[in-house]
Automatic annotation (TrEMBL), chain A:
Protein name (database record): ABC transporter ATP-binding protein
Source superkingdom: Bacteria
Keywords attached to this entry: ATP-binding, Nucleotide-binding, Transport
GO MF assignments: ATP binding; ATP hydrolysis activity
InterPro entries: AAA+_ATPase, ABC_transporter-like_ATP-bd, ABC_Transporter_VariousFunc, P-loop_NTPase
Alphabetical list of PANTHER family matching this protein: ABC TRANSPORTER ATP-BINDING PROTEIN ALBC-RELATED
Residue span, ABC transporter domain: 2-226
Keyword Nucleotide-binding carried by entry: yes
Length: 236, 248
């Protein structure tokens, strides 16, 4: 599904990714974890072609993505910070994205699921953070694509919306979709993910199931295992 | 946003056209006044609109970048949207009053057409320069500042420096220097082009005279149009080039 090889990226003097290799197979939910600023968003944006790597190659669905754009038709992406054009109405934004994608979409159900009907004619700049995130989720899930990339999907959501989000994720997973998710909410990660990928110092520091991570760190809870792994390399 | 402002811009030119014709009462004289306005104002408007549009549609751009759209189409589309609507406003805004005033029956029609073509070139050039500057500067204030400085330099400072160099290097043959100096400034180039066509030696100035002496009127026109074309193509090409490499 996704194959990343020897990926290097630096912003100015800040080396964010240094020789990262990662293979994501089709089907299942992969959580990308790592401290703030470890390069999770950078990796995701490189896969989407929004960040241009200094070195290395990325292929998605068996084609190298360099200078390509059509493959994005197969990806649904939820950005970490929903920076929408503020002067658009929610309805207009949805229509616009549909127009670009030219794919069948099922936004009505999603709008109803997240109770967004009252906001359809509001401008995006006037929405609360959580409501914006719900719009973000609707835009991401309304198309049927094999790869779904969610950068901090839980940000700002109320408990009910969070439950709906998890249901959505499981429903899509059952259809054989592949997910790439970043989150700092360990409980959420533990609930949804099949495999975790831990990013540290520009490389994949750990990749495997949560059980394997617990064994490796000799911790009994996932949260402690993650805490342990982030201090690991200071010891050895 | 874009359409509202290009409307205002259109009305401004409409008004300008009518006022000039009213004051000058003669088409060919109005053309000269118009040239002086166009040569300074059109680049300024192109610069400001270009920069503002780029920064204002940043969120929009980011949204599009994650969609199945080619990068160069996103940026060229935005550029052509701004430059195109500015050009339309200019051509229609000035065209309507002049046509109503009997442009088609007058012999100023070619002069006037050339004026509009030059205006269109200047819009394309300066909007492209502005987009270049904005794309290379994350910081809005800096980008805006550099873009206005670039305009100020080409519209005002350049001529000053040029005149100074003429005085300083008085004893040397300066023909090729001044030819080059004109070529490297789209505003000077436009002015020379129009004055060559109008064939007003008194206004032609030093460079214009050299231009005429060097190339003759016909070749001079062709060469300056080619240079304007180059001035248009290069920044647009660079725009696509930066856009391809930029991180979002
Ligand atoms: N466009 C950019 N220009 C310059 N530096 C950037 C850019 N994008 C990211 N960075 C830097 O790259 C580093 C990694 O950022 P990134 O957003 O990938 O981290 P992250 O792992 O997603 O963090 P978080 O958990 O806070 O979301 C940071 O130091 C950040 O400042
Ligand atoms: Mg991030």
């Amino acid at each position: 599904m996704i194959h990343v090889e020897n990926l290097y990226k630096k912003f100015g003097k800040n080396q964010v990714l240094s020789g990262l290799d990662l293979t994501i197979d089709q089907g299942g939910i992969f959580a990308i974890l790592g401290p703030n600023g470890s390069g999770k968003t950078t990796l995701i944006k490189a896969i989407l072609g929004m960040v241009i790597p200094n070195e290395g190659s990325i292929s998605v669905l068996n084609t190298t993505i360099k200078n390509k754009w059509k493959y994005r038709q197969e990806i649904n992406y939820l950005p970490q910070i929903a920076n929408f054009p503020g002067n658009l109405k929610v309805r207009e934004l949805i229509a616009m994205i549909k127009d670009i994608r030219q794919k069948p979409s099922e936004e009505e159900n999603l709008i109803a699921l997240f109770g967004l009907e009252p906001f359809l004619d509001k401008k995006l700049s006037n929405l609360s953070g959580g409501t914006k995130q719900k719009v973000n989720i609707v835009l991401t899930f309304m198309f049927n694509s094999p790869l779904i990339v969610l950068d901090e999907p839980t940000t700002g959501l109320d408990p009910l919306a969070l439950i709906h989000l998890k249901e959505l994720i499981f429903k899509e997973k059952a259809k054989g979709k592949t997910f790439l998710i970043t989150s700092h909410i360990m409980q959420f990660v533990e609930e949804v993910s099949d495999e975790v990928v831990y990013l540290l110092e520009g490389k994949i520091y750990f990749k495997g199931s949560i059980e394997q991570l617990k064994t490796k760190t000799e911790e009994t809870t996932f949260e402690h295992a993650i805490a342990a792994i982030s201090t690991y390399n200071h010891h050895d | 946003m874009r359409s509202r402002w290009s409307y205002v811009y259109f009305l401004f030119y409409l008004l300008l056209g009518f006022v000039l014709l009213f004051l000058n009462n003669e088409l060919s004289k109005a053309v000269i006044t118009l040239m002086n306005v166009i040569i300074v104002l059109v680049p300024l408007i192109g610069t400001i609109f270009g920069v503002m549009y780029y920064y204002n549609s940043k969120e929009f751009t980011e949204l599009l970048l994650a969609q199945p759209i080619k990068r160069s189409s996103i940026f060229l589309g935005q550029y052509l949207g701004v430059a195109g609507s500015l050009t339309m406003s200019l051509v229609l805004g000035l065209g309507i009053p002049f046509v109503l005033y009997g442009l088609f029956q007058s012999n100023a029609i070619w002069d006037f057409s050339l004026l509009l073509i030059t205006g269109a070139f200047l819009t394309l050039i300066f909007t492209a320069l502005a987009f270049n500057i904005a794309l290379s500067n994350e910081n809005k204030i800096k980008g805006f500042g550099y873009a206005v400085l670039a305009w100020l330099f080409l519209a005002v400072i350049y001529d000053g420096l040029f005149l100074m160099s003429l005085i300083v290097f008085e004893e040397y043959p300066l023909d090729s220097l001044s030819l080059a100096a004109t070529m490297f400034n789209p505003i000077d180039l436009s002015r020379t082009l129009i004055l060559l066509k109008l064939d007003i030696s008194a206004l032609l100035g030093y460079t214009g005279a050299i231009f005429k002496q060097f190339f003759g009127t016909g070749l001079g026109l062709v060469i300056s149009i080619c240079m304007l074309l180059l001035w248009t193509v290069l920044p647009i090409w660079r725009l696509g080039h930066i856009a391809k490499r930029k991180d979002f």
